[in-house]
Specification:
Chains A, B, C, D: This is Dihydroneopterin aldolase. The structure is a homotetramer. The first copy, chain A, has about 110 residues and is α+β, with helices and mostly antiparallel strands. The first copy, chain A, contains three helices and six strands; from the N terminus they run αβαβαββββ. Chains A and B meet through α1 and β6 of A and α1 and β6 of B.
Chain lengths: ~110, ~110, ~110, ~110
């Protein structure tokens, strides 16, 4: 079947989420440093091709619950709440990562012509 | 627009390539250990949902050209040649990573009903 | 204070454990693929300078307890049992990673002249 | 041989550099986003035990030389200039990462009683 602009838009969106997750999960983080990590993750992914916008939020309550006796934890998948819009000529794809049913899920929220 | 099975198939394919790249690039590697790294990468990604098949090849010539005086290098994006088939109900998507025009590119090779 | 061969031996040992942990934690893994991941991790770290020997074991029971409904999980720090010997001219340092008191701890087991 | 506080101080310093390198190398980066990545890396490592201070600088000239046609690159080892002080009861260890002789080298700068 012919590969369409829509296919490429959705494919690029998937790449970004997989990259974000496996690049940054594991990073040491605390309540004090969560904000700079959120900013670095969103800016880092935003330089990749076709990223129109991205917001990254790290769940503070989960950080707190996971703090070691040394006062920090590591970024874990379930802590991530991500919303990103990928724009490929002709299409915008809105995707996200969210914690649902016990897992950090990646999913397509909306596809629109643009 | 309604999100289709085809969209989800392509999205999942993108996730796998982004994950593979950012999880394993940076791993120390030499000519002697390239094979075990290839096997671990392909098996690791193969346990994720919807992966029908995957093959990973690390360019030996590039390893050789990049060897440090200590006799090893790190896995770099351009060294990767990946071919993967993602199967989502109704569709099979064949995607890959290959070195083209100076970059490690991720691309859709084929989409078929299945 | 003068930096000694012993200091460098211990420093190199620390580098290897930090590298191993942050390179491979997060890798998708299942009971079926744990062995190839163990082998790739130990071979990957073994190519780095001053590594005399290394063994990596991934806790199968923890994999099982962490399996998602998709039949896999991600390599987590607590799953790792690592034993490594770093040899720097004049000294051998035996270090490890093990799960103790709820955390994956990195520690020096023994330092010997060699 | 008895493991001393000095050994542990140096060991912890090695762990931090290995962790930093393998967690963040590979992150997409551009001239515009280098600053937020530097800040996130230094803050992330600073939450780990025994880190007294750390500064991370990403070489802007190397970013520029490595920019893809998409206007970004990935953080590579040679781009890193790191200076960190690890404080373990009784000792302070000053370590760094710097680009020398074609490689990103990790080394001990100074050990002092403290």
């Amino acid at each position: 079947m012919t590969i369409t602009a829509r296919d490429n838009a959705v494919f690029e969106a998937g790449i970004k989420l997989g990259a974000l997750y496996h690049q940054f999960v594991g990073s040491p983080v605390s309540l004090r440093t969560a904000e700079s990590l959120e900013k670095a993750i969103s800016e880092s992914i935003s330089v990749q091709p076709y990223v129109k916008s991205i917001s990254v939020s790290i769940n503070r309550k989960m950080i707190e619950e996971n703090l070691s006796s040394f006062g920090y934890t590591e970024l874990k998948g379930p802590m991530l709440d991500v919303d990103a819009v990928i724009k490929y000529p002709g299409y915008e794809v809105n995707v996200g990562i969210a914690y649902k049913d016990g897992y950090p899920l990646m999913f397509i929220k909306e596809i629109r012509e643009a």
